[in-house]
Amino acid sequence: MRRNIPLARQVILEILSAVATGGMTGPKGQIPSEAELSQRFGVSRSTIREALTTLELAGLVMRRQGAGTFVNPKFNGHPEGIYAWFDEASAFM
What we know:
single chain, mainly alpha, 3 strands
């Protein structure tokens, strides 16, 4: 992780990249749990929650209590849509 970029933003970038390449999602576009992401990126669960909340507010993921976090079906399987979203959202973030 780089020091000059907030951790939550770095996690967002990593998640976007992994989702776009298909290296993170499971069945039906499910993203690993907060605990798994925390271990994977070496950050706290609160940082993961902040990143996932930002992605949820932006419409990229959907979170269901007790079920998990899922890539919005609009983007699932369409990496070009994720990159287009990211290009538009970069200035916002």
